[in-house]
Amino acid sequence: MNGHQRISAALKGKETDKTPIMLHNFLMAAEEHGVTMEQFRNDPKIIAESFIAAVDKYQYDGILVDIDTVTLAGAVGVPVDFPVKEPARSHIGCLNDMVEVKNLKTVNVENYKYIQVWLEATRLLKEYFKDEIYIRGNCDQAPFSLASMMRGAQNWMLDLMMADENMIFELLDYCTEATGQFIRLMAQTGCDMVSNGDSPAGPEMISAEMYEKYALPYEKRIVDIAHKAGLPYTLHICGDT
Q1: What is the DSSP letter of 105?
Q2: Quick check: helix, strand or coil at residue 66?
């Protein structure tokens, strides 16, 4: 079995010749390829070459294509810091008050530079490996997590307890549109799977009741978008989930 066959079989509950391995290793891949994160995030060819070199060296089965954890946030207006030697990061949200949700511009993540870099890197990897290695096109934040980045994590946690519920749902709808757009764009790259992260919705952060009300319904909508595109979907939430 090759890597693509191994992971595909495991996802279908079939026996594999050995345990399939997919690494979340973009930082190590860039470091071992001798490039800075600034070079990595700005050039899809460098991203692809870094992952190709990592697969050649370690012989694992699937690539998780990732460049940072703030690309989707940047696409919706969250201020982003771009260190030379570290992944991009955000420190504050773009909404100072929940009432500003009413003034949000129509989202179009396709116009954001780093979305396009991410998509092109995924295309290049799929073009290179074809059906030899499994390609997972990660799509950054699920809606709940994206909302927390737009408001700032501390503000968002307070919003869940104190803000107008209609505004909470309005922001989550907006974020679902943004995440859904990224999923649809990623599906067009030829990748084998799409995924998101939703760690602020984990049990160390919110209650089960809050999760079922504010996170799960929007995660389900994203899963439906992925499945309608004909792709399997993975959701990552840190913690004991």
Answers
A1: P
A2: coil
pLDDT in tens, 192-211: 999 999 999 999 999 999 99
Alpha helix segments (H runs only) across 43-105: 44-58, 71-75
Pairing between β-strand 22-23 and β-strand 193-197 as defined by DSSP bridges: unpaired
pLDDT digits (tens, 9 = 90+) for 48-57: 999 999 999 9
158: CB partners within 8 A, 6+ apart: none
Token pair for 178: 């943004």
Domains of the chain: 3-236 (3.20.20.210)
**Cβ neighbours of residue 162 closer than 8 Å, sequence gap 6 or more:** none
CA distance 82 to 52: 24
Taking only the tens place, the pLDDT of each residue in 53-73 is 999 999 999 999 999 999 999
150 Cβ contact list (under 8 Å, min separation 6): 73, 76, 77, 78, 93, 94, 95, 171, 175
- The residue whose two tokens read 């116009």 is 111
Q: Render the burial of 125-160: b for 16+ CB within 10 Å, e for the rest.
A: bbeebeeebbbbbbbbbbbbbbbbbbbbeebbbebb
In the sheet that holds 62-65, the strands lie side by side as 22-23, 62-65, 134-141, 193-197, 233-236
Portion of the chain with pLDDT greater than 70, in percent? 100
The Cα–Cα gap between 136 and 190 comes to: 10
Each residue's pLDDT tens digit, 24-42: 999 999 999 999 999 999 9
